[in-house]
Amino acid sequence: MAKLTINSLLRDAVAVTGKPLPAGSKMEIEANSVMALIKALDKLYPGCGPSLSVASVSIDGDIYTDALTEPLDEFSEVVFLPSIEGG
Questions:
Q1: How far apart are CA 56 and CA 17, in angstroms?
Q2: 8 to each of 69, 83, 87, how far by Cα in Å?
Q3: Which parts of 1-87 fold into alpha helices (H)?
Q4: In b/e form, how buried is each residue of 12-21, taking b as 16+ CB within 10 angstroms?
Q5: What CA–CA distances, in Å, run from 53 to 23, 24, 35, 73, 87?
Q6: What are phi and psi of 70, to 5 degrees?
Q7: Residue range 43-87, pLDDT digits in tens
Q8: Whole-number Å distance between alpha carbons of 52 and 56
């Protein structure tokens, strides 16, 4: 199972569903790719998928801007990253 860090981006994406995330800073989701992870989350929290599918993702410390097809394994640590705006 992929280990997903619960951060503000994930909380905001899930807030539209009205369902609470589990207590703590991590949750585990069965998924073999980032796309499968987002689909699993969208099944648990309907409506959160679109926000997460455009986010950058950190997998085991490496950052991906287009991560949907990136593979995950049972030890993968995943963090959805908020956009950094500047000007």
A1: 21
A2: 23, 12, 22
A3: 8-15, 34-44, 49-53
A4: ebbeeeeeeb
A5: 23, 23, 8, 19, 24
A6: -65, 135
A7: 999 999 999 999 999 999 999 999 999 999 999 999 999 877 665
A8: 8
